[in-house]
TrEMBL record:
Bilayer-spanning residue ranges: 636-660
Provenance organism: Cricetulus griseus
Comp. bias regions, Basic and acidic residues: 669-678, 714-735, 761-777
Signal sequence interval, chain numbering: 1-18
Protein name (database record): Leukocyte immunoglobulin-like receptor subfamily B member 3
Source organism phylogeny: Eukaryota, Metazoa, Chordata, Craniata, Vertebrata
GO terms for biological process, alphabetical: cytokine-mediated signaling pathway; immune response-regulating signaling pathway
Domain of life: Eukaryota
GO CC, alphabetical: plasma membrane
Amino acid sequence: MTVTFTVLLCLGLTLGHGTPVLAGIRPKPILRAKTDSVVSEQTTVTFLCEGTTGAQEYRLYKNGHFRNKKNPPNPKNKAEFSISKIVPQEAGQYTCQYWTHYGWSEHSDALELVVTGAYNKPSLSAQPNPVVTEGGKVTLQCGSKQQYSGFILIKEGPQEESRILDSEYNQSTWQYEGRLPVGPVTSSQRWTFRCYSFRSNSPLVWSDPSDPLELLFSGTLHKPTIKAKPGPVVALGSPMNISCQGTLDAEMCFLHKEGSQQTWGTQTPKEPGNKSTFSIPSVTEDSGGQYRCYCYSSAGWSEPSDTLELVVTGIYDTKPHLAELHSPVVTSGGNMTLQCVSQMVYNKFILTKEDQKFSSSLNSQYIHSTMQYQALFSIDHVTADHTGTFRCYGFYNQTPQLWSVPSEPLEIHISGLSMKPSLLTHQGHILDPGERLTLQCVSDISYDRFALYKVGGADFTQHYGQRTQAGLSLANFTLGYVSSSTAGQYRCYGAHKLSSEWSASSDPLDIMITGQLPDRPSLSVKPNSTVQSGDNVTLLCQSTYTTDTFILSKEGAAHQPQRMKSKPQDREFQAEFPMSAVTSALSGTYRCYRSQDSSPYLLSHASAPVELSVSGPIVSSSPPPSSPLPTAGLEMYLKALIGVSVAFLLLLSILIFLLLQRRHQGKFRKDDQKEIELQHPAGASKPVTRDRGHKKRSNPAAANQEEILYASVEKMKPEDGVKLDSSRPPEEDPQRQTYAQVKDSRLRRAEAVLPSVMSREVPETKEEQAEEGRETDTQAAESEELRDVVYAQLCSRSLRQETAAPPRSQAGEAPEEPTVYAALAVTRPGPLPIKEKQ
């Protein structure tokens, strides 16, 4: 027995030392979560319990209570337990153990499972701000509007750390806060924090995590570039993106709003361009401010980017009004003043341009006369860069990035020095309501587009230009049926296709609408409505209503109507329109209207028409307004007209000169023939004749008679004081038409037609002369075409003048100026040959 017991005892001791299972010593299992022990609601958590080889069963416990068991697969050294869609009630302390043939192992160390998302997230900030210096210190603060027992502050990273912060109420911020000083900090590592809130009755049920807070260092690496899309001025509620582009080796980029105790975002740069994009789905008041971004790499921190100022508009509903004090079309190189005005008490106004390349802010000033606040923005030496759309906003000094809703856009156009177009109206300057109106902008410059502007308005209507066969470019602006809103002063401009600069302004065109004021003025003429040319006339327009200005218009006139300030006279208002030295061009129908200075283009009804009649020389008046020409085109048209007129007159003068020269040369030939005849001896075989074959006559006998003049002079004594001067030879006579000068003042131009001389010899007695006179009278009555020849007979005994009134032409033509022919024979008269009758 003793030996057996001793052997068994030795065997047992040997087993006890070599086999722990038999001795009751089993390894403690290890319990851990496969992902993290801090999980959010509705996620799945997996526990891993690691035991020893040969374990047959694993069990999971929560707060000491059995939850689940698992039979592990081979080699049976571990088991997994999963909980899906976890809820806050699953939070607690978990342990596990396993079973072998030798019994149960010990429980593992407890694993605390934290479930987040049960409460609203707290805030996490760094004071004074998250931008720190090397070796500096900062205070981290967790805060919440809700009451919690405490906060959990976690430093994320390879070596995660957590701290519990007690919650205290801060009356100045009206929230519960927990603070923790951190430092000294270095840039050799990242400092990223989050915090949670919890209640004492469930310390493992936490709130949602706060936004991460990254401590930022201002390093020495190249600064990133920051931009806002669509732009730095964003309307309330609109989405936008802020991009931060760092160097190629940047690992993380951070967005920080100046003055904020938080980082606004953390992004990993993405290709292309190694750019991080921070999206703001809906801009709020908190979005306004100044932003910078920082980038971090293994080499360290970058410099901060340039500041991006993000402005949120539409915070205040009162819209200011923007206007140009003179005209939205400004001459290049000139000055312009933009006025931003509002009834709201804004501290400042800011003026912006659509491309954001221009902005300027000014303090507002209160104007007592208008009871409004305004700011005047003066821009000197404007250039083409100032062309575009401007708006203005109001804001307050304490929130400079929060603006009002914008004013209506004001489009500014720059005009140059190119030739101005002309603005025309085919319907006249004064129209009744309901009439249709079309304004035409026309130029002889090849402008591709035209713009119409109503002075004092904001509209700048543009139309493409059209070319005419006359080489003009024009555009028609149809204003439709006119009303009181149509009244005003208009200008137009021209521009080329590729230019942002407009031409000089056209001359202003006034459009006035009648029937907008009560009463119809009266119009009268002094001294009379019918006057002589050169007289002085006064048109008097009167009204019993209070009137500032009277307007006088002439029916069909192209010029602008005349305006005259009214004067009170005998409980009436009147204006006199004087006209000095009137001409027939002022004849026509006149009407007058009245208007007020507050609305100078709104007129009363027209007065009764007055007809002014000016008698005297007809003076060409200005052309009707239906077809006016532009100013520049009119100048060229007048020049062309003058040139054509001069050319026509010159050509006409040349033709007249040639005709006169030809006629004059014909007279010379006649004179030469006469001179030859004078030198012919008596009884010569060839007669002295005059050839005028270029004139056609219906009577051949008359033609022959008109061709030849014979005057025979014998030795005689002059009678009745008539003297013949033969001292000057024929060639000295400048006219070369007569070869005998009759010196007697009583001698008149002879108009008698003596065709008998052309067919008979010169008579030697008075009886023969009388007989020939009777024959002459008879032939003159038969031939009506002989009106332009005067025959003078000189005989040896007396010089007789015989006249006979030429008969009227059948066609009523005026008689031609008669010509004097005289043939003097120095020898005794002989028989003259008679030409054959045709």
